[in-house]
Amino acid sequence: MHLMTLSRFRATAPALPFSGPAMAPSLRLPVNGASGDAKDAVVILEKTPFQEESISDLLKKHTRLKLQMSNDIYSTYHLYPPPQLSEIKTTVVYPATEKHLQKYLRQEVYLIRETGEDYKNITLPFIQSQSFSIQWVYNILEKTAEADRIIHENPDSSNGFVLIPDFKWNQKQLDDLYLIAICHRRGIKSLRDLTAEHLPLLRNILQEGKEAILKRFGVAGSQLRIYLHYQPSYFHLHVHFTALSYDAPGCSVERAHLLSDVIDNLELDPQYYQKRTLTFALRADEALLKKFQEAGKA
Question: Which residues are responsible for catalysis (predicted)?
Fold first, then answer.
């Protein structure tokens, strides 16, 4: 597929101001495959962060400025940067399933309060009924894809993991540093599966992840936000490492759980996450929301 051949599209997110990938506009595009049949693609457009050393280049003579408003000491302009400063990161999902398409539609969201019983009776059966592929995760773990991007690995099959840069981060600056630790052990879907049995794995991720990032990027553990999502975007246990100064997508209180807190909670009660009521957001179109509504839980 070549992006230059794309001629029709439907915007799946409105042109609103955004501060990061979570608010990035995306396009739904019908693409003709090799067989001539049209398949959907999702194209996600994100303005890459400006690098500090390039800011002065924006204000030189060859930069075009168009005045929008002037009032006393304040003025507003539209600035048209030179090509080398107008880079747009473009992520393509192709062919995109209906679930991919729905993921990027902007919709109303609702908070759910999920008890341990709700998880067993509603959420878990729903997860088990889905067939959303995580083969790409296994490809990373088996090093059949992205092997050259691995920053650190503990190869232990039970308590090991790989640490890899997230695609949200272009690795050109540390302001939006973002890495993911993916555990080797399969079958741990999310926070809900964690017990005291998994403490060695979680401690390894916390300690070794911080050490690897300090060694490779010079960022101290005290400057990192290290957390799990609930619910996660894919059901294979992974941990997010982001720069503390970066307002990363998904770091809000209704979704992010600090890894250090998770470890403390499991040390206090080995079954903590099987018992605790967890809050998370669901979008209006998500089938799981409908399941909670049918059960009178939303």
Answer: 238 (nucleophile)
Q: How many domains is the chain built from?
A: 3
Catalytic residue among 152, 184, 238, 257: 238
DSSP letter (8 states) at residue 244:
T
pTM (2 d.p.)? 0.73
Residues of the domain holding 42: 1-48+88-102
Q: How far apart are alpha carbons 46 and 20 in whole angstroms?
A: 7
80 and 196 both lie in a single domain:
no
Q: Is 238 a catalytic residue?
A: yes
166 is in an annotated binding site: yes
Domain check: are 97 and 190 in the same one? Answer: no
User: Would you give the DSSP letter of residue 90?
Assistant: E
Q: Is residue 213 located within the same domain as residue 152?
A: yes
Selection from 126, 234, 243 nearest residue 188 by Cα: 234
- pLDDT, one tens digit per residue, over 194-253 is 999 999 999 999 999 999 999 999 999 999 999 999 999 999 999 999 999 999 888 999
